Design the sequence.
């Protein structure tokens, strides 16, 4: 976001706010910026309203519950599988947090009554009670909220960009976690991060599960609760509306011709492979990396014009599952 600021406001543009709506007024010197991520799903904005006095007391995803799972596996040091053993607890806690916030918004004392009711029932009955609340007040899909790419459109770049902008719009409409059930459900990933660490640290997961946890699960958690400020996402939508920032690449895009091709850069949504957009020769669609610093590296290991290699080292885009 800081780089985008340098390429927009830093080049003479400005944001204008009118009754809550944000509009970008170009300065004339901005380049066209293309955004891309391997998952294709934008980070969620941080809550606009933060009530620090509200502290979440978990009912299901607790250190005691993790200890009980380990005992079932064979002892206090038995490793767990995060997806099989732990994710059901997290998803259930997200559903509870959603209903607690919904009750808090409905009337005074409703949240306390719901918490007391859930605490008094066995774990097996708790899931059935949450299903009843889904039927009464509308279903909350915790797994979809966690994963993020529901409804992603990859038929062509324009469809994907509309989906991307709509995801930002709906997320900005959720406001803060104090009064938004969806934000409250996601915020337990931040609120209970110590329990997550207690689960995964010091060999707490099996080898294959630990690899999946650090490669896939941690980025999902960060995307859900460690995104940019609310105002920055509003500004990003304004930049997209002005045509300064575009997100037409979808996921796992291809770059025919190689990085040194002089005929421009042809890109497409890799999943559907139906629509191709060709950009001007001056637009650099590249992915380069600097060599990993070693003990023999210069004193300053960060790449700079003086100690960086003259040419970057090219590598292919990995085909990672979402």
Sequence:
């Amino acid at each position: 976001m800081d780089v985008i600021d340098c390429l927009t406001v830093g080049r003479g543009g400005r944001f204008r706010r009118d009754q809550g709506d944000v509009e970008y007024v170009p300065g004339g010197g901005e380049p066209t910026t293309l955004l891309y991520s391997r998952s294709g799903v934008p980070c969620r904005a941080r809550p606009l309203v933060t009530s620090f006095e509200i502290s979440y007391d978990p009912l299901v995803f607790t250190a005691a519950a993790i200890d009980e799972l380990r005992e079932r596996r064979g002892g206090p040091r038995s490793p767990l599988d995060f997806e099989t053993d732990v994710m059901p607890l997290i998803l259930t806690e997200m559903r509870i947090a959603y209903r607690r916030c919904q009750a808090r918004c409905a009337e005074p004392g409703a949240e306390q009554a719901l918490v007391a009711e859930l605490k008094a029932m066995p774990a097996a009955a708790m899931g059935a009670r949450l299903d009843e609340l889904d039927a009464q007040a509308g279903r909350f899909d915790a797994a979809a909220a966690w994963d993020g790419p529901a409804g992603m459109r990859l038929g062509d770049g324009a469809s994907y960009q509309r989906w991307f902008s709509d995801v930002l719009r709906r997320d900005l409409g959720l406001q803060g976690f104090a009064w938004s059930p969806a934000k409250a459900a996601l915020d337990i990933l931040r609120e209970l991060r110590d329990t997550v660490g207690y689960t995964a640290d010091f060999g707490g997961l099996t080898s294959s599960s630990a690899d999946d946890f650090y490669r896939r699960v941690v980025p999902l958690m960060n995307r859900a609760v460690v995104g940019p400020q609310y105002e920055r996402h509003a500004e990003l939508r304004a930049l997209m509306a002005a045509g300064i920032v575009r997100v037409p690449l979808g996921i796992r895009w291809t770059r025919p011709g190689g990085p040194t091709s002089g005929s421009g850069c042809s890109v497409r949504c890799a999943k559907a492979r139906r629509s191709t957009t060709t950009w001007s020769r001056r637009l650099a669609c590249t992915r380069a990396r600097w060599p990993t610093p070693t003990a023999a590296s210069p004193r300053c290991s960060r790449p700079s014009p003086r100690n960086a290699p003259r040419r970057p080292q090219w590598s292919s885009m990995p085909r990672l599952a979402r």
Summary: Strands lie at 14-18, 21-25, 33-34, 245-246, 265-268, 276-279, 288-289, 313-314. Residues 93 and 267 are 41 Å apart (CA to CA). Residues 63-231 form one domain.
